[in-house]
Prior knowledge:
It comes from Citrus sinensis. The protein has 19 helices and 17 strands. By secondary structure, the chain is an alpha+beta fold. The protein has a 7-stranded mixed sheet, sandwiched between helices. Helix 5 packs across helix 7. Phenylalanine binds next to strand 16 and strand 17.
Amino acid sequence: MAEEAILGYLEKNEQISDSGNFAAERGFDHNDVVNVIKSLHGFRYIDDIKRETWVLTGEGKKYAAEGSPEVQLFLAVPAEGSISKDELQKKLDPAVFKIGCSQAGKNKWVEMGKQVSRKVQNVEDKVKDLLLQVQNGHALSKEEISSLKARKLIVPQTWKGYSVRKGPNYAPKRKKAATDLTRENLQKGDWKELEFKEYNFNAKGQPAEGGHLHPLLKVRKQLKDIFLQMGFEEMPTNNFVESSFWNFDALFQPQQHPARDSHDTFFLEEPSTTRELPEDYVERVKRVHESGGYGSRGYGYEWKREEANKNLLRTHTTAVSSRMLKALAEKPFAPKKYFSIDRVFRNEAVDRTHLAEFHQIEGLVCDRGLTLGDLIGVLHDFFSRLGMSKLRFKPAYNPYTEPSMEIFSYHEGFGKWVEVGNSGMFRPEMLLPMGLPEDVHVIAWGLSLERPTMILYGIDNIRDLFGHKVDLGLIKRNPICRLGIS
Ligand code: PHE
């Protein structure tokens, strides 16, 4: 409708000077008219879209009515003879006098001194003329616009409408332009008559969607680099499902331990049990649990194979460490430094800081004669690379380590000591049944990946970091992070 009206109007008239009036007069919505104008302009049915107009400022309006200050000043100087400057000033408005003096002087219209006299007989009020032209909606040259603009006599008006005239492709009715050359066009030969839409090389393309790394992956990469720089090898952690045997029994964790309850651990329904375990090793583990050995009294309970067979979602990556140490024990001994960063699962109530799954960072060193001093030393080295150089240790308990230590770091931002990890020396009850030499000791530590990531990215609810409630914008926009550089 608006399109017919515009094209129809231009058939008989030279231009539509204001699309706003055009729409109002015909009862169209101005937005619709503007959209049609843009589309017709795209196809060059119409042309000459004007967007900027100028309006007079208060000062400009005054001069348009009363004449420019330079002309007012010129007229106040007598045609013959002269007038004293003081006398002249009394005859004029102070602003007009001030501007008039400088402009009339610049134009060489008057001789300025104590006495003022004319240097020319007649002057033209060009400024007033230009201001009147602007007032009447006429277009001025660039130089004229800039001279009036510099004197703050005009300001641009934000033009909300358009002024249009016929374009090179004008026709009273729009022909639908073809956008594609089809097989039918070629077969029928109608491509000869078709009008094709021109390519718009300035049109924006679809934004390219690349992949984005999750903050956890970025921090994981930084931690992995730190371990690699320290000479650690990565352990294969690509099995979320583990047997209770490797997750607990091999780690000398008794079968009645509360962590082995379904309140704390996710057990698998299908397949509910593991198919095979290394039988002679299972026998040695059973014995150490029941009656000890290697200088230990054991736990003194009846160890059940069915309990060890139960499949679960691994509750810590230490399950992988136990497999790796067992594999080391099967070969002539060579020292090793291992690490892993991967997912673990715990049947926990979800809150601001806990999820039922998270990522664990784990490091271990296996060598002859290692001591607690070595553990403390390696922890200082590792954590200072993370930017945490003030550490404190607190005695703790893990079924598989003795001694065990919780690790605290002084957080400058929070102004307090915060727990950052757990550590210890693996017990002989764990290492000796595997077959490792007696003087081989293993120092190890673990921490979560989520905790440092939340601190680094200023996230205080874990559900904003991980899981189905995460805002994808966070993933797309988050910056890289560098550990140790604060
Ligand atoms: N497995 C422990 C945990 O889940 C971490 C740890 C690893 C502790 C190695 C000591 C030694 O918290």
